Amino acid sequence: MIQQTVLVFLTISTGAFGLPNPRILGNECSYKDFNLITRAGWNARPARSPTSLSTPVELVIIHHSYQPGACFNTEDCSTAMRSMQDYHQLSNGWDDIGYNFAVGSDGQAYEGRGWDRVGAHAAGFNIRSIGIVLIGDWVSIVPPEIQLETTKQLIAVGIQLGYISPEYRLVGHRQVRATECPGEALFKEISTWERFSPDV
Asked: Residues 80, 150: contact at Cβ < 8 Å?
């Protein structure tokens, strides 16, 4: 019986250490290469009636916020998150901020609906995707390198945690809806990334 208990413990421990588990630091989760600011960290309101997302998802859809503009520190990016949540919840009448995650020009990721809740960012595709918005207007200029790298790292974490399929396809919002989003400059950038798909 003792041997069985030890074996189970070792199996669970090995599985846990094999994942990129974060260090919890107050309102932040510190991964190896970036920080994830939790909903509490940016002072989010509660979601009204969240819907569970079936994972792993097959699509990662990239957006830009256009407005609010780029943010370069936690305070400004948190303000941008609250602004987007206000617009989505109060003006659009949605359950919550539409995106699963956001990434700021400060190099930090911000938790939106998270890994396990259906987003409201790409009608017709929400139930099979994770939506990531890069805060800022990326029509004419490419986001800072740190913002791009954090986005890639966030996707990698999603794969390692089992929320994103290793065979996922990366697309821009404009590929699933008639919109300029995620901005011409950012779209050209992500079209060079691994797993980018010209077809949805």
From this structure: no
Sign of the dihedral defined by the CA atoms of residues 14, 16, 22, 24, in that order = negative
Distance CA 56, CA 102 (A): 19
Phi-psi region of 162 (alpha: psi -120 to 50; beta: other; left: phi over 0): left
pLDDT averaged over the chain? 88
Rounded Cα–Cα distance for residues 144 and 140 (Å): 13
- Give DSSP secondary structure letters for 54-77: PSSEEEEEEEE-SSS----SHHHH
Measuring CA to CA, which residue among 11, 17, 22 is closest to residue 115? 22
> What is the separation of C-alpha 85 from the centre of its chain, rounded to a whole number of angstroms?
15
Q: Measuring CA to CA, how many Å separate 55 from each of 31, 102, 128, 133, 168?
A: 21, 19, 8, 19, 11
Place of tokens 């079209």: 191
How does pLDDT run across 53-85, given as a tens digit for each residue? 999 999 999 999 999 999 999 999 999 999 999
Spatial contact of 42 and 81, defined as CB atoms under 8 Å apart: yes
Structural tokens at position 103 = 């990434």
Residue 7 has pLDDT above 90, yes or no: no
Q: Where are the alpha helices (DSSP H) in the chain?
A: 2-17, 74-86, 145-160, 184-190
For 84-107, the pLDDT digits (tens) are 999 999 999 999 999 999 999 999
% of residues, the chain, pLDDT over 90 = 82
